[in-house]
Amino acid sequence: MDWGTLQDVLGGVNKHSTSIGKIWLTVLFIFRIMILVVAAERVWGDEQQDFVCNTLQPGCKNVCYDHFFPISHIRLWALQLIFVSTPALLVAMHVAYRRHEMKRRFRHGEKIDIEELKNERIHIRGPLWWTYASSIFFRIIFEAVFMYIFYYMYDGYQMPRLMKCSDWPCPNIVDCFVSRPTEKTTFTIFMLAVSGICMVLNLAELCYLVIKVCMKEPRKTT
Amino acid sequence: MSWGFLRDLLSGVNKYSTGIGRIWGAVVFMFRLLVYVVAAENIWKYEHDEFECSIKQPGCENVCFDHFFPVSHVRLWALQLIMVSTPSLLVVFHVAYRENREKHHNQKLYRNPREIDGGLLCTYIISLVLKTGFEIVFLVLFYKLYNGFKIPHLVKCDIRPCPSTVDCYISKPTEKMIFLYFLVATSCLCIILNISELSYLIFKYSIKCYLKRYMKKQQ
């Protein structure tokens, strides 16, 4: 039970997405979840064990580590991925509700589009369009919020090699050394870049949906 | 045998739930189970190794850790997840019992064995009450065991064999506190969802009952 289950859930949403939505899901799985699991977790795996301060004072290392890393990068990325994936569940729920309604109407003898029910692919129109557009909007908001939180918490996206710490019980200003700072900076910038790409994809998908609806409107009126 | 079992249980229960019940299932899965497995377990993984006291006296660290953390947060969290998901099994069993009965008697005894009415409604309401009860019990347990939802940087310990009052430092207290608040927030959200679902069901079936009686009177 781990990210694989999220993959199953989101894979179901894939059927009802636009093409850009499918590209977004692929980028999410390959360049974010997979990189997090196979690479980033190893890089940050030993972060507290290998965080070294040049003092033998017991407790100084714990306190300094907690001061400089209130929440680890890895955990923030995991939360970001969970929050960014959640709006897609809204779409999945709406689709399930729509199919349930169509089946109910079919049972009561009303005419419905049987092909749509059989194909298992629902067209994005009407209330489902609004749900889909809102989900994309929330995805963009969550991505932006998490990118800002990273920037605010860690004063930028670079991991310093050395931090100076004077919190009690450290006896004076001690030097504390972070393990693997360059590798961590590399991965932070990579994840930031992929977040940016995902945001651009979401914006493009939103524009595409809006344009599609606007193109349909004049045809309806003429 | 791991959390995959709970995940399967939650998706199985989904079929017999109301709309709010499905939202509850999604919240428990995404914001509680998934966060627990991918984030919380790792934060608390080395909590004992990283618990440091300012003394070399053998046994002092062990005794102090045991005094301040009788049951680890992460274990309580896991127990809470299990206890809160289990009442839904009552509904699954009742539906299975209904379907079994129909098969056994070889005739249609219920309009729809999966529809929430009659006995199944009672079972569903009981499961909701139990879920809410367990959530509240665990929140109170967390609060009582750890004096609120805060995790201090430092605890002072003077239990034998520690020779005097020693300072003991907890690792990653801020990160643990953030996730503890996250746990409390999602628990409260689940309690609200359960209470809404309970109110919705009671309201819906009261209206149904009232309308039936009114129709009977008319006839």
Automatic annotation (TrEMBL), chain A:
Keywords: Cell junction, Cell membrane, Gap junction, Hearing, Membrane, Transmembrane, Transmembrane helix. GO terms for biological process: cell-cell signaling; gap junction-mediated intercellular transport; sensory perception of sound. PANTHER family: CONNEXIN (PTHR11984), GAP JUNCTION BETA-2 PROTEIN (PTHR11984:SF46). The lineage of its organism: Eukaryota, Metazoa, Chordata, Craniata, Vertebrata. Belongs to the connexin family. One of its GO terms (molecular function) is gap junction channel activity. A connexon is composed of a hexamer of connexins. The keyword Nuclease does not apply. Its main location: other. It comes from the Eukaryota. It is a multi-pass membrane protein. This is Gap junction protein. It is found in: Cell junction, Gap junction; Cell membrane. One gap junction consists of a cluster of closely packed pairs of transmembrane channels, the connexons, through which materials of low MW diffuse from one cell to a neighboring cell. Residues 142-209 form the Connexin cysteine-rich domain. Residues 42-75 form the Connexin N-terminal domain. It comes from Calyptomena viridis (Lesser green broadbill).
From TrEMBL, chain B:
One gap junction consists of a cluster of closely packed pairs of transmembrane channels, the connexons, through which materials of low MW diffuse from one cell to a neighboring cell. The chain crosses the membrane at residues 21-39, 77-97, 118-143, 178-203. It holds the Pfam family Connexin. It is found in: Cell junction, Gap junction; Cell membrane. GO terms for molecular function: gap junction channel activity. Residues 134-201 form the Connexin cysteine-rich domain. It comes from the Eukaryota. This is Gap junction protein. It is a multi-pass membrane protein. Keywords: Cell junction, Cell membrane, Gap junction, Membrane, Transmembrane, Transmembrane helix. Its main location: other. One of its GO terms (biological process) is cell-cell signaling. A connexon is composed of a hexamer of connexins. Belongs to the connexin family. Residues 42-75 form the Connexin N-terminal domain. GO terms for cellular component: connexin complex.
